[in-house]
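Sat 14:20. Reprocessing the chain from the morning session after the first attempt stalled halfway. Input below, unchanged.
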Amino acid sequence: MRTVTALLITAGVLAACTGTPAPGQTSERAVDRLRVEVLEVLRHDPEAFTQGLELHGDTLFEGTGLVGESSVRAGPLGAAPPVRVDLPPPLFGEGITVVGSRLWQLTWKGEVAVERDRDTLAELRRVEYSGEGWGLCHQPERGRLVMSDGSAELTFRDPRTFAETGSVRVAAGGQPVTELNELECVGDTVYANVWRSDRILRIDPGSGEVTAEIDASGLLDPAERAEADVLNGIAAVAGTDQLLLTGKLWPKMFRVRLVASG
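Finished this time. Tokens:
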């Protein structure tokens, strides 16, 4: 896909508010306004067109895109990844997620998901799906994958077979939110980059409701920004309220937490 960004963002720092419904109306949750507070700046390969980011234990997994340059990489956080497997043309790599001893990798318009061995990143099989693939994350407590395709819809899939099991439409204030990109599942919450923006949304995947809008602007200085593409890449740091954030062709990755805006 089109945008790179991998930042560390804190998950679930603020509880969502619930508004009081007017007579005859249903209750609608207020949207929290948050921003990122940078805790640490880490290295990131400025040649990586980041499409997916996930921290599993001490290993950072990153999926990259562009035809002929797509890959999956794995290694210690903040270091050059020692393991890398390229995705052959004409496939364009997209989101990734770890499921036990396996890793799933989406393709943009190839309509196939690649299942890989988590440790070696070797390809095990390919599973077909319909439409585009953008972002992907795993909700182990729910026993499902959550996938985006650039629309306002999130699709749920079986983590073993990749078969579709359901979907939900994402909306804020009753209005659909499109161009949902790279995803990160944190418990019952899904974080989503919004393509071509510095916004990240916190989503309740049960209702599709946006519960927070996060301002992730200003992470790169103007000179860095001129050489980089969009924000894309969210990885939760387990056991903390922190996230890792980065973007396509970004020279840096950021460990952040979420705080109230203003």
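The two ends are 32 Å apart (CA to CA).
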